[in-house]
Design goal:
The complex is a heterodimer of chains A (408) and B (213). Chain A is built from 14 helices and two strands; from the N terminus they run H-H-H-H-H-H-H-H-E-E-H-H-H-H-H-H. Chain A is mainly α. A two-stranded antiparallel sheet of chain A has the order 1-2. In chain A, helix 1 packs across helix 2, helix 9 runs antiparallel to helix 11 and helix 11 packs across helix 12. Chain B has a domain of 121 residues: Alpha-Beta Plaits (2-Layer Sandwich). The chains are: A mainly alpha (408), B alpha+beta (213). Chain B: Keywords: 4Fe-4S, Cell membrane, Iron, Iron-sulfur, Membrane, Metal-binding, NAD, Quinone, Repeat, Translocase, Ubiquinone.
Chain lengths: 408, 213
């Protein structure tokens, strides 16, 4: 039964592919995969926006959107009164965004201005191709999937610069440069934080990294990387860097609404503006998927008795959990200043990630230690991350404590 | 330790999140069009005209078109035209009434001066605030029919003030009735009394130097 549920998406895909003549089958196969990813993650994006607004509301003791329901259809003899808890809000938002005027500045580079939102969405979707969504669900299986993921994800920075440059506006251009400064600063700890996992597992293939986290210690503790000292540290660094990479609060400087209006998006309106945010959410979802795959055991169940639930559901559950955590952080923290932001990256995250790399190497060199040596292995690994963390925190903190306002 | 502040902050928002589901006191949102706000009793804005009887609002307006409010209104948003004829008012006394009574709510500043100066308790402050109109020139100019609201409505929005006004008006009415009764009785007594002999009164000598009636 469980095995059948596991492969049912593949069975359905093969059945549809069989309907086409043989020379077309390879094309249909790939188009179908693309269509499923676009539909699924498009809807996932839509409902992330409503979940974000509702959760942010609750985190701030508000109700959040609960108005949008079913429109009155004149063909129905009755009117569905229920507002569906506002769950149809994304569709209303989409209609609104689509019907807005598309303003293009006279001086703008028309081609770049048009291509930037298109490119940013396309690039941010590329990452989904290599994520292992389930035991058998990998759109494209690459040996260097991790490398591909970062290469594809980094291309969004080009699109952001296209937006800033194409607007032909110094303000947008400066904002785009600042956005690039942020994205490039955080690209480094992001990649460094996943390298220990590559060292320990010994592969760049995301499928193998997810598979390596199967099994349980003492029969109940899952073998996920986040439950090891280096994995925990790596996961925290990954979370911070992923927040910054997807321009989310507290690192949402590129389009800080209250002080900058919209940064590199200033000259965009209507659906093009929405596309940038779509790309942001796609990027966030893809990065969360990567975090789940590398640190949270991928599609593995947390307990042996829960293995009857299909692996892709476990993956989506963990993905949703990550997104909810990001929303929680957004509802809590304040926006950083640009100097605080770059300092956090270069003075804190990068050194810690480099030390964590050593930690991962140590872990990769000592897989044979057992018995009392196992405790030594854990202690050394924990010390390798906790001591540098404390030292760095103490070294960087003086003079940067809570600000006192003498004349306020 | 670095990061502990962030954890504290996360705990605060998590408490908000859980609390918002079981502690209604936390939620400050008012779902306005569905659940109207509960206004304090002292809330006031545009004036309205009190009528005695809801079934015949125009016939029982307390307003007697004395035009004091029109003269006192600082932004001059009240416009009154007196009637040519008279109608019996609430106490049965024949009075003129406003043929036209209009308030331009686009100009009204809710100062309540019209209410303060009205000697007839005919104009009071209302609690409406949804006065959106599609045409600001005619839509916000309220006429007599739109302004008239029954006394029961006044009781509803300002119960204490309305009770006080009603008690006073009833006392006045009773006094007027008693006066009328006394006058009627006096008239009847006068009519019943034997007529004094013609020419007797003028013959009485004046008791004092002052002119008598």
């Amino acid at each position: 039964m469980s095995d059948f549920l596991e492969v049912i998406p593949l069975v359905v895909r093969d059945w549809i592919v069989e309907l086409f003549p043989t020379p077309l089958q390879w094309l249909v196969h790939h188009l179908l995969t693309i269509a499923v990813i676009l539909t699924f993650f498009g809807l996932f994006f839509a409902f992330t926006t409503i979940a974000e607004r509702k959760l942010l509301g609750r985190l701030q003791n508000r109700l959040g959107p609960n108005r949008a329901g079913v429109p009155k259809l004149s063909i129905l003899p009755f009117h569905l009164k229920h507002k569906l808890w506002g769950l149809t809000q994304p569709f209303a938002d989409a209609v609104k965004a689509l019907t807005k005027e598309d303003v293009i500045p006279d001086a703008a580079d028309k081609v770049l201005h048009f291509l930037a939102p298109v490119c940013i969405v396309a690039f941010s979707l590329l990452g989904f191709a290599v994520l292992p969504f389930g035991r058998a669900l990998i759109p494209v299986e690459l040996d260097a999937a991790l490398l591909y993921f970062f290469a594809a994800g980094t291309a969004t920075e080009l699109a952001i610069f296209m937006a800033g440059w194409g607007s032909r506006n110094k303000y947008s251009l400066l904002a785009a440069m600042r956005a690039l400064a942020q994205l490039i600063s955080y690209e480094l700890p992001l990649i460094l934080s996943v390298v220990p996992a590559v060292l320990v597992v010994g592969t760049l293939s995301l499928r193998e990294i997810a598979e390596a986290q199967g099994g349980w210690i003492f029969g109940f503790l899952p073998h996920w990387h986040v439950f090891t000292p280096w994995g925990f540290a790596g996961f925290i660094i990954f979370l911070i860097a992923a927040l910054a990479e997807s321009n989310r609060s507290p690192f949402d400087l590129p389009e800080a609404e209250s002080e900058l209006i919209a940064g590199h998006l200033t000259e965009y309106s209507g659906f093009k503006y929405a596309l940038f945010f779509m790309a942001e959410y796609f990027g966030l979802t893809a990065l969360s998927g990567l975090g789940v795959t590398i640190f949270l055991g991928g599609w593995q169940a947390p307990f042996a008795f829960l293995e009857f639930i299909p692996s892709y559901l476990w993956f989506m559950l963990k993905l949703a959990g990550m997104i909810v955590f990001f929303i929680w952080v957004r509802g809590t923290l304040l926006r950083l200043r640009i100097d605080q932001l770059t300092r956090l990256s270069w003075q804190f995250l990068v050194p810690l990630a480099l030390i964590n790399l050593v930690n991962g190497a140590f872990w990769a060199l000592t897989p044979g230690w057992s018995g009392p040596m196992l405790a030594v292995r854990w202690a050394v690994s924990a010390a390798l991350i906790v001591i540098p963390f404390l030292l760095l925190a103490r070294r960087l903190n003086p003079g940067r404590g809570p600000r006192t306002y003498r004349y306020a | 330790m670095l990061g502990s502040g962030i954890l504290k902050g996360l705990a605060v928002t998590a408490k908000n999140f859980v609390g918002s589901y079981h502690d209604p006191a936390r939620m400050v949102t008012q779902e306005y069009p569905d659940v109207p706000a509960k206004l304090p009793a002292a809330y006031r804005n545009f004036p309205f005209l009190v009528t005695e009887n809801a079934t015949d609002p125009m016939g029982t307006l307390r307003c007697v078109a004395c035009q004091i409010c029109e003269k006192e209104c600082p932004p001059q948003c009240i416009y009154i035209e007196k009637s040519k004829d008279k109608k019996p008012d609430a106490t049965g006394k024949p009075q003129i009434y406003p043929a036209v009574f209009a308030i331009d709510t686009a100009v009204c500043m809710s100062c309540q001066l019209c209410v303060e100066v009205c000697p007839f308790d005919a104009i009071k402050m209302d609690q409406v605030f949804e006065i959106a109109a599609t045409d600001r020139f005619t839509g916000l100019l309220l006429n007599r029919e739109q302004l008239a609201k029954p006394n029961t409505y006044f009781h509803q929005i300002h119960p204490e003030e309305a009770a006080e006004v009603d008690a006073r008006l009833n006392a006045e009415r009773k006094a007027a009735e008693e006066k009328a009764k006394a006058a009627a009785a006096a008239a009847a007594a006068k009519a019943a009394a034997p007529k004094p002999a013609a020419g007797a009164a003028p013959t009485l000598p004046p008791t004092t130097g002052g002119p008598s009636a």
